[in-house]
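REVIEWER CHECKLIST
Item 1: Sequence provided? yes
Item 2: Single chain? yes
Item 3: Sequence as submitted:
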Amino acid sequence: MIDAKLVAELRKLTGAGMLDCKKALVETNGNIDKAVDYLREKGIAKAGKKAERIAAEGLANIYIDNNKAVILEVNSETDFVSKNEEFINMIDLIGKTILNNDPKTKEEADLLDTGEGNISDLIIAKTAKIGEKLSFRRYEIITKNDNQNFGSYLHMGGKIASLVVLEGANTEVAKDVAMQAAAMKPEYISQDEVPVEVIEKEKKILTEEVINEGKPSEIADKIVLGKINKYFKEICLINQTFIKDGDIDVETYVKNNEGKVLNMIRYEVGEGIEKRNENFAEEVMNQIK
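Item 4: Structure as written out by the authors:
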């Protein structure tokens, strides 16, 4: 007979369910240390079975310490879990671990010690405990000098995270630019960064569009040029109309504050991941099974 207090203690130690804890203690003849190992092994096995599931929800976050910043994304299967305090604390632990180290690759980051095992093991353990596939998807480390300023912004609690670096200006201006990046989804800082092949592809599409509209060939080039400039204003941060002042663009706003945009990173949770289409009732039934 397994004592209920022992079950409660094991549950507190591992976060596993009551029935799983009781079974682990039965299998290990009441040895709580062996029961912890048993649950970990079973948890890892369960986590492995979740590997094929799609984790396209989750959160992005930003961690800043003086002249160093980390932006990262960690995914879960459902938005419900992304609001889980344990999930949020796990992201914080990963972010601060990376901030305190200097991994050059995702593989190096996965092996960093968090105090609760390395990041890879932490993800596996939390996958087993929370009951959904979790995934540390990506991160980037950005550094600056003392004459530069970070600007960061989280939208919807971390569904979108944007981080910018400005030469000069100040942190308030930098935050405004980060907010702009989050809201307006620029793909590049300036048109100088847009690859030639992207521009040529867009020109080809726009030329066909103008020709199909029946515009005379002698003015087609001018129309396409105008459309390309409009395209740059959509995809390039500094060319976008400033959201707080529609009379100027972002570049002008920053220049008026004696600054220049140097860097921009924007993460939108789940971008590029094919999301599953399941209704909530079906999801709940799957959890019960």
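Item 5: Key structural point noted by reviewer: The chain has a mean pLDDT of 86.
Item 6: Recommendation: ____
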